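[Automated response] Your request has been received and processed.

Submitted sequence:
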Amino acid sequence: MSQHCFGIHAVSSLLQRQPSRVKVLLVQQERQDKRIEQLLDLARQHGITVKPVDRKVLDRLVEGSHQGVAAEVETLQARNETFLEQLLAQLDEPPFLLVLDGVTDPHNLGACLRTADAAGVHAVIAPKDRSAPLNAVAVKVACGAADTVPYVVVTNLARTLKLLQQSGVWITGTAGEAEQLLSQASLTGPMALVMGAEGAGMRRLTREHCDQLIKIPMAGSVSSLNVSVAAGVCLFEAVRQRQAGMADLLK
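Generated structure:
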């Protein structure tokens, strides 16, 4: 199966990291500039066929701003529970995971993958139902992170959280009504951060499997943040704590 990766940054990242996935590079005929030339050079280096096309062809192929370029690629597949078990067994450092419960917008999924990559998250986990697909939009927004951060789709999220706990992973859920502030929580060691959908938040069963609930202090008039922004705030607080803990060990 094939899908289209589009946008200069996303295609460039793909050509640099996983050129073997690219079947053909489609470039808008009248588009000639330095950024396009760099993509063409990358494609030539890897022996990838370049096909000049009319802009209308690209407009029909993708939904969004293609910037005059699209790559036909092998479909990027989500991983499953078996992959997650193997990943946890192979890690030589404490697991650092992001769980998305009810995040259905591909734009938000892509942004969360990008944030997860920046924070050093080992995998992003989501339930099979009521979750965004790893489609071309998500891949474009992720700006290459979809190729580096595994997206694990599980059949039963509550069961997966329980298995993580049995493996020693501490489950931290985010909820606006939580009493503990983000800065007050311990986010070191093996951990999974659970983010719910905007508005609805985590589902009841997901909440019940959390070891602790935290909230981001909100000083303004808005009641919540976009899920990818909230994930970034929480993940990088965890990064700060983990780096501080490592620095203490090295003293």
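Summary generated for your ticket: The first helix runs from residue 8 to 17. The CA atoms of residues 77 and 134 lie 7 Å apart.
If you did not submit this request, please reply to this message.
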